[in-house]
Amino acid sequence: MSKIHAVVLAAGQGTRMKSKLYKVLHPVCGKPMVQHVVDTLASMRVEDVVVVVGHGADTVQATLGERVAYALQKEQLGTAHAVQQAASFLQAKEGTTFILYGDVPLLSEETLTALLHFHEDQKAAATVLTAVLPDPTGYGRIVRNDSGEVMEIVEHKDASDEVRAIKEINTGIYCFDNQKLWNALVQVKNDNVQGEYYVTDCIGILRQAGEKVVAFEAADPDETMGVNDRAQLSEAEAYMRKRIAVRHMKNGVSIIDPLSTYIEADVTIGSDTILQPGTYLRRGTTIGSDCVIGPQADLSNTKVADGVTISYSVLVDAKVDEQATVGPFAYVRPGTEIGPQTKIGDFVELKNAKIGKGTKIPHLSYVGDAEIGEGVNIGCGTITVNYDGAVKHKTVVQDGSFIGCNTNLVAPVTVGKNAYVAAGSTINQDVPDDALAIARERQVNKPGYANKLPRKSKKE
Asked: Catalytic positions (predicted)?
C-alpha cells in the first residue's frame, strides 16, 4: 500500500449554526466534529494530515494540538482553493490523498478503509465516495459509463430529467493519486456564478486527460451526512449515539433502553455490565465488568472498577474501586477515590476525598479534602469543616473509627485508629487511637420551665 495523506477542510464559518462556537468544534457525542475525523484518520495510521483552517483557526489548533499540520485559508474561495493551501505540505509527495470535511463526523474507519482499498485496487487517478439516496434532490449526480467508471458529476440544477432520475450522488469525499490531484488543481478555473474553485472540477479535468475515475458507494449513506445547522447536528448525534450503543452491546454490555442511554465517544465498558435508563457516560469514563450503572447516573471522566453499582448519582473526575456502591443521590466531585467494598449512600457529597476499603458513609454527609481509612463508619449528618474562608484543610479519619451522627470535624484534624466520636460533637482537636471523644454541652433539664414560655392558644 502506498503512503496515505489527507486534507481535512475545516475553514468554513458555519453561519447557519448561529453560534459563537466555530462550526467544526460543535460536539457530537462529546467530541468536536473535526476531532472525530482526525481520530479516524489516526486509527488508520494516515501519514500526513493537513487541516485547512480559516475562521476560528486558533481554537481549532488548540483542540487538535500538534498531531496534525495546519494550512490557513484566508479567503473562502471554494473547495479547490482550500485544498491548494496544503500545497507546501503535500505537493511533492507520492501516494494517495483523502479529501475530507471537518463537518462530516460520522465516516467510519471501515468505510474509509474500503474506499482506499477500492481506489488502489482500481489503480484510479480519483475515486469518488458516493451514496444512493431515496430522494437525491439538490445533490450532484454520478454519471457512469458501461464499465462503471465516472464520466461526470452533474449538479442538480444543471441536470436533465434523465440525469435527475439517477439516485447515486456525490458526497464530496474523494481519494486521489496525490500527484495527479495537484496537477489537476492548477487547472481548476473559477468561471462560475460564485467565482469559486471547486474540487469537483478535478474529476472532469482528469477524465479529459484520459485518467481513470471511479466511484465507490458507501454501504450506509448516513455516514456521509454533513452538519450545517443545529437540526443536522442533532441527527448526527442520534446516529452516532446509536452506533456507539450497538458497538458496546456487541461487546457484551446490556443497555436496557438505548434510546434513553447516552454514551459519548471514547467511553470503555466491560462485559456483563448493565446500563439502566437515564445513564449518561461522558468522555474519559471507563467502566469495568459486572457493574450496574443507573438508573439516572451521570459520570464524567470517571474510572469505575468491576462489580460496582451506581444509581441516581453524579460523579466527576473520580475513581471507584471494585464492589463499591454509590447512591442513590450521591454527588462525587473531582479528586475523589472510593475504595473497594465501600458504601456511599443517599445525599452524600464527596470532594477530593480518599475513602478506604469497606468504609460506610450511608447518608446526609459532606466529606471534603479528607482521607478516610478502612472500615470506618461515618454517621448521618457528619460534616468535614474543611474551609476557613481562605484555605482548605485536611481531615484524617484512620482505620476502624466510628463517627457518630451530626458530627462536625473541624480541619485540620485527625481521628486515630479505632476511635469513637460521640454523636453531636464538634471536634477541633486530634482524637487519639482507641479514644472516645465527646465535644458537646452537657444536657440540663429545668422542670416546669416550659410553662413560663409564651404559647399560642388552641383557637389560634
From this structure: 363
